[in-house]
Amino acid sequence: MFDKMRAALSEGRADYIELRIQESAGTSVGYSGKELESIGRRTKLGGSVRAMVKGGWGFASFNDLSQLPRFVKEACGQARLVSRPKHPGLAPIEHVKRIVKATPKVDPRDIPLDQKHALCERYNKILLAGKNIQTSNVIYRDYAVNEYLLTSDGTELNQETCFCGIMVAAVAKEGSNVQRAYESVGDLQGYQIVEGLDHAAETTARRASELLKAEPPEAGPHTVVIDPKLCGLFIHEAFGHLSEADLICENDDLRKMMRLGRRFGSDKLNVVDFPGVPGEAGSYEYDSEGTPVKKNYLIKNGILSSRLHSRETAAMMNEEPTGNARCISYDYAPIVRMSNTYMEPDTCSFEELLDGVEDGIYAVGSGGGQTDIEMFTFSAEEGFEIKNGKLGKKLRDIVLTGNVFQTLRDIDKIGSDFKTNGGLGGCGKNDQSPLRVSDGGPSVRINNVLIGGRNED
Amino acid sequence: MKIDDIAGKIFDGARAAGAEAEIYYEEYEDRPVEYEDNTLKYLATKIERGIGLRVILNGRLGFSSTSDFGKIDELLQNALESAKYGEKAAFTFPSKCDVADVKTFDDAVAACTTKELVDVGDELIQRLLARHPKIKCTADVDAETSEERIINTSGLDIGHRSTSFGADVAALEVKNDGLLWAGDGYDSAKLDKNVAALADKVATDLDWAKRDTTLKTGTYPAIFAPNTMIMLFTTICDGVNGKLVQKGSSPLSGKIGEQLFDERISIYDDPLLDYGPSSAPHDTEGIRSARTTLVERGVLKSFIYDLQTAGLMGKKPTGNGLRGYDTRPGPGHNNTMILPGDTPVSEMIKGMKRGLFVENVIGAGTCNTLAGDFSVNIGLGYLIENGEVRGRVKNCMIYGNVYELLKNGVASIGDKAEMKESISLPHFLFSGISVAGQ
């Protein structure tokens, strides 16, 4: 493959040319209610060329590999038409010639379809047997991508990725009250992570049913304790996206706002992004530009200490590349993305987090979020009232909002527990969605978090 | 290998295995030009083609897909294996389709040059900078041509071509204490280089947001712009999706014929809008396109179905079987048309003593969308006092229930509909929206 790619690359003329070919195959199984709605294997093959001339980029993506030289010339031609003033080029990296194999403990490609089907069927039966359960969803997915990356400045990488995960969900219904609960696991560890989830399926059905009796929270500002899963979502939305350097690198005002050394939170606040954690949903050894990865403290002791870079943004900001240039698939150009993003734990016990909270909310689980970079929302799967330091009645529909310049400062206690989450979902940015990422952290207490409520009938 | 040859090969193999088969072939060429920091940054050409293969073997549905045309045998084997476990098919592949008449292809879009796209993008940004010199814009303009073809062993062989032209811009103004984003876009099957209106609208959003104001927690009348109304109508679209109805998880199950919404609300699924962003003469299963009345004067009239869901529920297919080549068909929306009302937006604003204008929101879809609940941060919104815009409202949430609002909360409906992401909708004025603020 590299021979063919090298031959095509030699036909292009540009400051930088990157050729990428991906072959992928995946299996999915999907139950919706009693019906097995989908099962089977699908394949893809495609490639792209990205070329840069004086800071202007050309890009061509395609499925027909027999025309590689044509697409190389096209991308270079496009790049020549675009020229951006005073472009510093790309930051240098160590150029690697390597084959990186996926290392799942149990390879999902070795598991017969029959077995995957039986697993999903079993979980689905457990979900549907729950009290008040109207319908269910079980989605199993595995995929393997074999990628060839060749660049004009010396990188020659063949990386294999193998992802496996499952989501189980239950919808409970009582009259017109409909509530949903789910659990999702998914990462690079292997097929073994989707086995042994009978108990998780039972719990999911029970949680959906219990939500029927839960009430929405009172709207307004609250002291909130969040669990590790929600902490992961929080730090992803509140800070992760703001760390992506492609947002700020060309904007002087944003660069001033995000100067290294600015304080964002207390001394106890540490936030990391690290693609090199083995086996997580956002893990990889080399990013989509071939840059080796490293552990990156975005916030250290409350101070902004680093950000997420591609080779281009690193050059523009005169900083080191970090290995965060990622494309979701061959038909997209790499952009700056998170990988595994988490808050580090501190020393507080759960009791200490609740202690002193007269009237607050304990919110758990991740229901998704969004950010416009300054303001962000993050929603919980469920929660509980906190009254005088003790957990009280169950709550649902907890949607929290914050402002990056305020909310991180309002974190007042950080727990000693820690958990990271992957799953079948992922991160969305500029149409490249869902990109596999993980997030996580400890339980955390935050003051003055605004919560939306629900109209009481 | 040409698609006819591929189809022949697959159908021979399928018949030999005793199966019926359907090929969905899709190819497209997309040419976006992208701007960052007010200047052109990327020129791209994205060409994609793929095949989705459905089979019915021993009465069961199987599916696979590929974009690797060197793996056709594997494609068939994957589909046949999938059929071993598949759902029992509640339909048969149609043998013919009397396609509807609708314009979906504009030669001018297909012939659009890179220079033309760049000229449009340059004009869009220059117009914005003329009114707001300090902003930084990202933008993209793109022209796309696509083709789909559906061939099956019952003898069907139909297809059509479409074009798409669109422009999008997001303007960022960094202020002393925060960020201000304003942006919007449009798309259509027809070439539309008129970016002046788009630029003016975004520039006006920035003008209105010049000052920041605060809002206390409470209930306020509120105008929701089309970019916000999308959140509400996405919930309704999910509710009328025949698949969710069949599973019993739609709150609209069993409610056909009931007055569920304000009588001023009528909603249609319309694949026959000439040059609409989601128009087609037939759906992706080969069913003739037709306009479907979903809600008429507030009364729920119909759900949308694909062939399988229609079969399971004993209903006539509505021609809403939609998909990309790498997914199975499912009930999907074409152009969703919400009829405009009779109140100009300027009148809604003039008549407001103290209330909100919500242009867009953050966090849509993260609440219990099945039940129609929403709880979102006001991304871009304004305080209106005595008929005038006072400034931007920040760090506030609005929350409520879509079904309640659209039944009991509508004060008036705007007289002009705008097409956003294949949903055509006007502004709505609601008499009371709950706000969690300062």
Structural write-up:
The complex is a heterodimer of chains A (457) and B (438). With 457 residues, chain A is of the alpha+beta class. Chain A is built from nine helices and 24 strands. In chain A, a hairpin with a 2-residue loop joins strand 6 and strand 7. The longest helix of chain A has 16 residues, at 113-128. In chain A, strands 8, 15, 16, 17, 18, 19, 20, 21 and 24 form a nine-stranded mixed β-sheet that branches. In chain A, strands 1, 2, 3, 4, 5, 6 and 7 form a seven-stranded mixed β-sheet that branches. Chain A is globular and about 70 Å long. Chain A has helices at 2-9, 68-81, 113-128, 198-211, 228-240, 245-248, 252-257, 311-317, 350-354, and strands at residues 16-32, 35-53, 56-62, 97-100, 133-151, 156-174, 177-187, 220-226, 271-273, 296-300, 303-304, 325-326, 335-336, 340-343, 359-364, 369-371, 375-379, 382-387, 390-395, 399-403, 411-414, 419-421, 438-441, 444-452. In chain A, helix 3 runs parallel beside helix 4 (198-211). Chain A is 19% helix and 38% strand. Chain B is of the alpha+beta class. Chain B has helices at residues 3-16, 72-85, 107-110, 114-131, 196-208, 226-239, 242-247, 307-313, 345-350, 402-408; strands at 19-36, 39-57, 60-66, 136-152, 157-175, 178-188, 212-213, 218-224, 267-270, 292-296, 299-300, 321-322, 330-331, 335-338, 354-362, 373-385, 388-393, 397-401, 410-413, 418-420, 423-425, 428-436. Chain B has a six-stranded antiparallel β-sheet. A six-stranded mixed β-sheet of chain B has the order 11-10-9-14-21-20, covered by helices on one side. Chain B has a five-stranded mixed beta barrel with strand order 8-15-16-18-22. In chain B, helix 4 packs parallel to helix 5 (196-208). Classes of the chains: A alpha+beta (457), B alpha+beta (438). Chains A and B meet through strand 2, strand 3, helix 2, strand 7 and helix 7 of A and strand 2, strand 3, helix 2, strand 6 and helix 7 of B.
